[in-house]
Amino acid sequence: MIFKDKRVLVTGGAIRIGRAICQTLAKSGAEICIHYNRSYKEAVELQDELIEAGASAHVAEANLMTETACNELMERAIALMGGVDILINNASVFNKQTLDEADMDSWLGELWPNFFAPVQLMRAFADQDIPGKVVNLLDRRVTSLDPSCVPYLISKRSLTDITKLAAMHYAPRIAVNGVAPGAVLPPPGESDDYIKEYAGPVPLKVQVSPDDIATAVKFVLENDTLTGQIIYVDGGQHLG
Ligand SMILES: NC(=O)c1ccc[n+]([C@@H]2O[C@H](COP(=O)([O-])OP(=O)(O)OC[C@H]3O[C@@H](n4cnc5c(N)ncnc54)[C@H](OP(=O)(O)O)[C@@H]3O)[C@@H](O)[C@H]2O)c1
């Protein structure tokens, strides 16, 4: 039980990759606060599942589009668990938009949940003044200049940079790392064909699963020597 007594906040933890991260860390003994925005039903179902399996689990709602909402989420998680030792910034919005298509509303619609919220949550997390670890969910696209999803790409590239800056800034008290998935799941509303059509070549010719991402998050958290690292879990796709 490597994460016994560790209190973890997973943003966007109710479904998809966030759900797999919650399940994996709970299995290793962590107490989990499942953050959700719209997926209340799935969050409560996951909470029941984790409790049934012997873990401690909580749910907390927040629409991560304002500084106040981010601060209140951290306060709520601290109140529920008595503190937060590990922050997983997983919640995110993905839209395909070129530079021409993206207006300021769509820029902010991606920058807030994908970049500003993780930054503000890291700041609120650090204010606890206890040792901790942060994992930011990035994207293998951060090594490219993919013109098809510009606000998303910039939000994730910025989150990659702040991951390294925060690793330096918060050391030695807090380790900050990134996990960058390849094409794991199609965006909500798209079929599995989306991945085959748009994912592009994968050198290892493997399909990355939510469990592969969750295992990588766990690996990063287990190793006390890692900070400022970006782990690409993408079959080598970021190399292309
Ligand atoms: N899926 C992939 O193949 C892939 C590829 C590369 C990188 N990634 C990254 O890996 C992470 C997980 O991916 P995913 O596909 O599982 O994510 P996702 O389903 O697109 O989003 C995760 C959660 O983010 C939450 N969220 C969105 N807007 C929010 C807001 N305004 N306030 C609060 N929460 C909000 C949603 O919570 P509710 O459902 O509760 O509303 C959603 O369930 C993301 O950071 C993503 O960028 C994923």
Describe this structure in words.
This protein has one domain (7-239): NAD(P)-binding Rossmann-like Domain (Rossmann fold, 3-Layer(aba) Sandwich), CATH 3.40.50.720. The chain is built from 7 helices and 7 strands, in the order βαβαβαβαβαβααβ. It has helices spanning 16-27, 40-52, 67-81, 104-126, 150-170, 193-198, 210-222, and strands at 7-10, 31-36, 57-61, 86-89, 132-137, 174-181, 230-233. The chain has a 7-stranded parallel sheet, sandwiched between helices. The chain is globular and about 45 Å long. With 240 residues, the chain is of the alpha/beta class. The relative contact order is 0.14. Helix 1 crosses helix 7, helix 3 runs parallel beside helix 4 and helix 4 (104-126) packs parallel to helix 5. The longest helix is centred in the middle third of the chain and has 23 residues, at 104-126. Bound molecules: NADP nicotinamide-adenine-dinucleotide phosphate (NAP). NADP nicotinamide-adenine-dinucleotide phosphate binds at residues 12, 14-18, 36-39, 62-65, 90-94, 113, 137, 139, 181, 183-185, 188.
What is the makeup of the main sheet? 7 strands, parallel
> What's the CATH architecture name?
3-Layer(aba) Sandwich
Alpha plus pi helix count:
7
Which structural class fits the helix and strand makeup?
Answer: alpha/beta
SS elements, strand count: 7
String of helices and strands: EHEHEHEHEHEHHE
Overall number of domains:
1
CATH topology: Rossmann fold
Task: Report how far the terminal alpha carbons are from each other.
Answer: 38 Å
Beta-strand content: 15-25%
The CATH superfamily label reads NAD(P)-binding Rossmann-like Domain
The low-confidence runs, each spanning 5 or more residues with pLDDT under 50, are none
Bound small molecules, which ones?
Answer: NADP nicotinamide-adenine-dinucleotide phosphate
How much helical structure, as a percent, in the residues? 40-55%
Cross-sheet strand order for the largest sheet: 3-2-1-4-5-6-7
Average pLDDT across residues? 96
Question: Tell me, what's the shape?
Answer: globular
What radius of gyration results from the CA coordinates?
Answer: 17 Å
Q: Determine and state the CATH class.
A: Alpha Beta
